Amino acid sequence: MTTEKIIDGFEFERFRNIKGSYVSRVSIRKQGHIGLSQGLLKKLGIREGEWFAKLYYDRNHNAMALGFSNDKTLSDVAKVQIRPSSANNPGNLTAHIAAKAFLDYYGITYSHKTVSYEPEVHEDKMIVIVRFGEPAENDQNEGGEAMHESE
User: Fold this and answer.
1) What is the mean pLDDT of residues 48-71?
2) Is residue 110 part of a domain?
3) Considering just the CA atoms, what is the radius of gyration of the chain in Å?
């Protein structure tokens, strides 16, 4: 990143990605999709090309794990659908995984509202863990209950 000297004594970096997002979020969407924020995609280095996700569930911890790979030869994986987050800014990406069968099998609710979670991100292993029952901080009201946002 280059700096600009706009005032003596300072070296400011100019921020240009005004419509970008840097927060890692995983959403369970009401269509039965698992949504991945552009911040999460950036953190994992998922950009162009074909990506796939291994889906895992831990019944003891009520947690889901997603393992990402660009290896086309893997079996029992879901395709990560990557697309621009807006037509005006095609460099910013968002993604989702069609996961209705997975969500149904493990009884993970999705049919009413979209709920976002702050995942544990293990960049070195390309694994994301979501602990259900712990929605993202800004998805809770003052009483700590999950606030759902329709999509």
Assistant:
1) 95
2) yes
3) 18
DSSP 8-state assignment for residue 104:
H
Q: Evaluate whether residue 13 is within a structural domain.
A: no
Structural domain of residue 52, as residue ranges? Answer: 20-139
Q: Nearest Cα to 138, choosing from 112, 113, 118?
A: 118
Residue-wise pLDDT for 95-114, tens only, equals: 999 999 999 999 999 988 89
3-class DSSP state of 59: coil
Tell me if 1 is assigned to some domain.
Answer: no
Whole-prediction pTM value? 0.78
Closest by alpha carbon to 37, among 22, 52, 50, 18? 22
Q: How many domains does the chain have?
A: 1
d(CA 142, CA 123): 32
Which DSSP string corresponds to 45-57?
Answer: T--SS-EEEEEEE
How many Å apart are CA 140 and CA 92, to the nearest integer? 26
For every residue of 73-110, DSSP letters joined together read T-SS-EEEEEEES-TT-TTSEEEEEE-HHHHHHTT---
